[in-house]
Design a protein that fits this description.
This protein is about 40% helix and about 20% strand. The protein is of the alpha/beta class. The protein folds into two domains: about 150 residues, Rossmann fold, CATH 3.40.50; about 180 residues, Argininosuccinate synthetase, chain A, domain 2 (Alpha-Beta Complex), CATH 3.90.1260. The strands form three sheets. The chain has a five-stranded parallel beta sheet with strand order 3-2-1-4-5, sandwiched between helices. Strands 10-9-8-13-14 form a five-stranded antiparallel beta sheet. It is elongated, with a radius of gyration of 25 Å.
Length: about 400
C-alpha cells in the first residue's frame, strides 16, 4: 500500500473515525491523513473535532459548514418529492452522505490526495452511499474502507483499540449505541435496540421529548410554502437553516417525530433503527396537506408511485444517478402550484391538520357541496358510469354467453 501517500478521511469524531486515523498511519506506511468534518447541523459535536483529530494523528483538519447547502439542495428536494423509505424512514442519514462525500472529493482534489477513507461498516448502507458518490464525481480516487480490511469486528473491539492508542471516544460499553446526527434527524442503532422486541428506553431520546413528557395543551403552527419549499413559520419569513431549527424545537417539545422501524438495508439484511426527526416530520405532514389541495388526481397518484422509487434511490446512494436527476425534474414540475399556508395541531406526538389554503387550490365548494348547486348536473354521472363500466359489462356478457 506504499502508493497511498495522502488520504482524506470523512471524520466525525465518533468511535469509528477516531480509531481510523492511527489505523491508517499504521497500515499504509505512515501516510498523511487529512480529516474532513462536514458540519451538517450536528451541533456541539463539531466543536471538539479539530483538536481531537490532530491529537489522533491527523496532519490537517477541514471543518466544512455545509448546513445551508444541505438543507436547500439535499433536504428540500426529498421533501418536495415526498420520499419516505418503506413508509417510515425520512432518509436523514441517506441524503447526508452524498454531500459529505462531495466535500471529501473537493478536498482530496485540492490537496492532491490519492484516496479517501470512510468509517462505514461492511454491513451497512453508508459504505455504498459514500463510494457511489465518489465514483460519480471522482472515479480516479482510491477508496479505503477500514471496516472491510481490519481485524476489528465489533464496537467493543473498536473501544478497546481506542483505549490502547489513547484515543478518546464518546461511547462506552455501557452505552454502545451507534448514532448519526444532523440538522434533520438523530438516529440510534445497536445495543439493546438490536432486539426488535425491546422497546426503546426513554433515555435513548436526546432530541425529542416522549409524548408523556409533552405539554398537556395543543400547539398550533402555520407553515407557508412556495413551490413546495417551506419559507415561513407563523408568519415569519426564515431562511432554510433557521426555519428547520425552529420547527425542530417546536416538534421536539411536543414529542413529534419518533420513528421505530425494522428496515431493509440495501446489502440484504434487516436492521432496527430508532429515529428522532421532529422538524422533518412536521414538514412532510404539512407539505402533503398542501398537495392534497393543489395537485390533480392523476398527478398526485403518479407522484406517489414515483416517491417510492425516489426514496429507494436516495436510500441506495444513487443521488447522482440519471434517474434521480430525471425524477427531480418531474417533481419540480409538480411543485409549480404547491404554494400556500398550512395550519397544524401538535399534541403529544400527534400531528393533525387544522386547515390549509392556496391561491392554486383545486377544491371548489360549488361543485362538491351537498346543498343545492347550479354548476353540476347529477344526471351526467349516468353516462360517465355507463362508459367507465363498459369493459366490465362486456366481460360479464361474454362470461354469461360462454356458460350457455
Amino acid at each position: 500500500m506504499s502508493e497511498i501517500k495522502k488520504v482524506v478521511l470523512a471524520y466525525s469524531g465518533g468511535l469509528d473515525t477516531s480509531v481510523i486515523i492511527p489505523w491508517l498511519k499504521e497500515n499504509f506506511d505512515g501516510c498523511e491523513v487529512i480529516a474532513m468534518c462536514a458540519d451538517v447541523g450536528q451541533g456541539e459535536e463539531v466543536n471538539p473535532v479539530r483538536e481531537k483529530a490532530l491529537k489522533s494523528g491527523a496532519s490537517k483538519v477541514y471543518i466544512q459548514d455545509l448546513r445551508k447547502e444541505f438543507v436547500e439542495e439535499y433536504i428540500w428536494p426529498v421533501l418536495k418529492a415526498g420520499a419516505v423509505y418503506e413508509g417510515k424512514y425520512l432518509l436523514g442519514t441517506s441524503f447526508a452522505r452524498p454531500i459529505i462525500a462531495k466535500a471529501l472529493v473537493e478536498i482530496a482534489e485540492k490537496e492532491g490526495a490519492d484516496a479517501i477513507a470512510h468509517g462505514a461498516t461492511g454491513k451497512g448502507n453508508d459504505q455504498v452511499r459514500f463510494e457511489l458518490t465518489v465514483k460519480a464525481l471522482a472515479p480516479h480516487l482510491k477508496i479505503i474502507a477500514p471496516w472491510r480490511l481490519w481485524d476489528i469486528r465489533s464496537r467493543e473491539d473498536a473501544i478497546d483499540y481506542a483505549e490502547k492508542h489513547g484515543v478518546p471516544v464518546p461511547v462506552t460499553k455501557k452505552r454502545p449505541y451507534s448514532m448519526d446526527r444532523n440538522i434533520w434527524h438523530l438516529s440510534h442503532e445497536g445495543g439493546d435496540l438490536e432486539d426488535p422486541w425491546n422497546a426503546p428506553k426513554d433515555d435513548v431520546y436526546l432530541v425529542t421529548k416522549t409524548p408523556e413528557q409533552a405539554p398537556d395543551q395543543a400547539t398550533y403552527i402555520e407553515i407557508e410554502f412556495e413551490k413546495g419549499v417551506p419559507v415561513a413559520v407563523d408568519g415569519e419569513k426564515l431562511e432554510a437553516v433557521s426555519l428547520l431549527e425552529k420547527l425542530n424545537a417546536i416538534g421536539a417539545a411536543n414529542g413529534i417525530g419518533i420513528t421505530d422501524i425494522v428496515e431493509n438495508r440495501l446489502v440484504g439484511m434487516k436492521s432496527r433503527g430508532v429515529y428522532e426527526t421532529p422538524g422533518g416530520s412536521i414538514l412532510f405532514f404539512a407539505h402533503r396537506e398542501l398537495e392534497y389541495l393543489t395537485l390533480d388526481r392523476a398527478t398526485m397518484h403518479y407522484k406517489e408511485q414515483a416517491a417510492v422509487r425516489y426514496a429507494e434511490l436516495v436510500y441506495d446512494g444513487m443521488w447522482y444517478s440519471p434517474l434521480k436527476q430525471a425524477l427531480d425534474a418531474f417533481v419540480d414540475a409538480t411543485q409549480a402550484t404547491v404554494t400556500g399556508l398550512v395550519r397544524l395541531k401538535l399534541y403529544k406526538g400527534n400531528l393533525m391538520s387544522a386547515g390549509a389554503k392556496s391561491p392554486y387550490s383545486l377544491y371548489h365548494e360549488g361543485f362538491v357541496t351537498f346543498g343545492r348547486d347550479e354548476v353540476y348536473n347529477q344526471k351526467d354521472a349516468e353516462g360517465f358510469i355507463n362508459l367507465f363500466g363498459l369493459p366490465l359489462k362486456i366481460k360479464a356478457l361474454m362470461q354469461r354467453e360462454a356458460k350457455q
